[in-house]
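Lab notes, practical 5.
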Amino acid sequence: MRRILLKEACAGMSLATDAVNAQQMLLLKKGTALTEKSLQMLKSWGVETVCIAQAETEDSETPGPADNSAAVQEELQSQFADTIENPIMAEICRVAAEIVHERTHSA
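Output from the prediction step:
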C-alpha cells in the first residue's frame, strides 16, 4: 500500500483503503478500481490523497524499466486512442510517456 496524491492516481489503480471525504463519508470502497469518472468524483469531493494497493509481487521500490515501460505505453495508447490523430494530443501522449519514464527511473 502506498499513499499518493489524487492528481498522481490513474485509472486502473486499485484502492488499498476506503476513500472518504473530510467528513469521513464513504466515497469508494477498498478494492475499487479507479476510473476517470471516479477520479473526477473524488476530486469534486475535495479528496487530495488515496491509498493505492500494490501488486503482491511489487515491493516498495520503484519498478525497473523493463517492469512497466510496455504497460505504460499500452495504457497511454488506450487513453489517447480516440484523439491520437490530433497532433497536439499526440504530443501530450508523448510527453506523458516521458514524464512517467522519468518518474519511474529516477531514484
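Observations recorded by the TA: Residues 65-105 form one domain. The mean pLDDT is 80.
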